[in-house]
Amino acid sequence: MNRFAYLVFGIISYLIFFAAFLYFIAFVGNFPLVPFTVDQGRPILPVWQAAAIDIFLIALFGVQHSVMARPAFKRAWTRIVPEPVERSVYVLSASIVLMLLCHFWHPIPAVLWDAGSGPLAMLLLAIFALGWLIVLLSTFLISHFELFGLKQVWSNMLGHGATEPVFRTPFFYRLVRHPLYSGFILAFWATPRMTVGHVLLAVGMTIYILIAIRHEERDLTALFGEKYVAYRGRVGMLTPRLRR
Ligand SMILES: C[S@@+](CC[C@H](N)C(=O)[O-])C[C@H]1O[C@@H](n2cnc3c(N)ncnc32)[C@H](O)[C@@H]1O
Q1: DSSP category for residue 169
Q2: ipTM higher than threshold 0.85
Q3: Ligand 1 centroid distance, CA of 151 (Å)
Q4: Element housing 221 (H / E)
Q5: Do the Cβ atoms of 163 and 208 come closer than 8 Å?
Q6: How confident is the chain (244 residues) per 10-residue block, as mean pLDDT?
Q7: What's the burial of 27, exposed, middle or buried (CB within 10 Å: 0-12/13-18/19+)?
Q8: What's residue 1's pLDDT?
Q9: Do 132 and 25 meet the contact criterion of CB atoms below 8 Å apart?
Q10: Neighbours of 172 (CB within 10 A)
Q11: What pLDDT score does 165 carry?
Q12: Rounded CA gap, 117 and 147, in Å?
């Protein structure tokens, strides 16, 4: 019974994540498909008031992601939360924090650049789309269903134990160590019309990504040892390394 309940919980968490992810693409891209976007929806507040709220939301996102992903937190947390659903609880928490960010975000409308609607704007939109595509593809390259907790609840349903983490370097991962984060950075920065609010989101998320990489690489080095150290030595972090 528990196994089935965990599986249902895992599937529901995954579906909520997917809806939040699609919403977030529309939010960053300012698509009028959703009520709140980075530049539209909430009333315009004085700049410092809006900036304080937005920075708090980015920090909340960063803290949730960083703290709940650490091995020490997971060890303590799985004394309360059953191990098979630990990742699904993480995914659900991350989705809730992402939706809070989208819902309470306050635009700061001053424009920093505007490429209009010509070829440059098209190019920036294409880079934006490419960024999200890289994010999605990267999740499949390192194991989409494990990253989002479905593999864990399914293995548990079949009565298998937890699987050991596997070090993978397919495709993009041969060029850069963090393609998923590179994709996010492209998606945050590539916009035909950059406002102060949007640049705050892009800067905040880029800082978060740089901090996340530090923590993630420390954990990966502890987990995979020399193999990861060698990989780090030969492959660039967010952009391919130019050979001499
Ligand atoms: C949100 S994903 C981001 C992956 C990577 N940082 C990127 O930007 O493509 C984070 C998870 O991927 C795992 N991970 C990162 N690089 C990996 C690799 N080369 N092989 C297997 N797992 C990896 C980390 O341990 C972590 O659980």
Answers
A1: -
A2: yes
A3: 16
A4: helix 196-224
A5: no
A6: 92 98 98 96 95 98 93 92 95 97 97 95 98 97 95 93 87 96 98 98 98 96 96 96 73
A7: buried
A8: 65
A9: yes
A10: 19
A11: 84
A12: 37
Q: Is the CB of 106 under 6 A from ligand 1?
A: no
Q: How far is CA 176 from CA 141, 230, 231, in A?
A: 13, 13, 10
Distances 34 to 26, 31, 99, 160 between C-alpha atoms, Å: 7, 7, 12, 41
Q: What does the pLDDT read at residue 162?
A: 78
What pLDDT shows up at residue 210? 97
Residue 96: strand, helix, or coil: helix
Q: Whose CA is nearest to atom 3 of ligand 1?
A: 180
CB atoms within 10 A of CB 147: 17
Q: Which residue's CA is the closest to the ligand 1 atom numbered 5?
A: 178
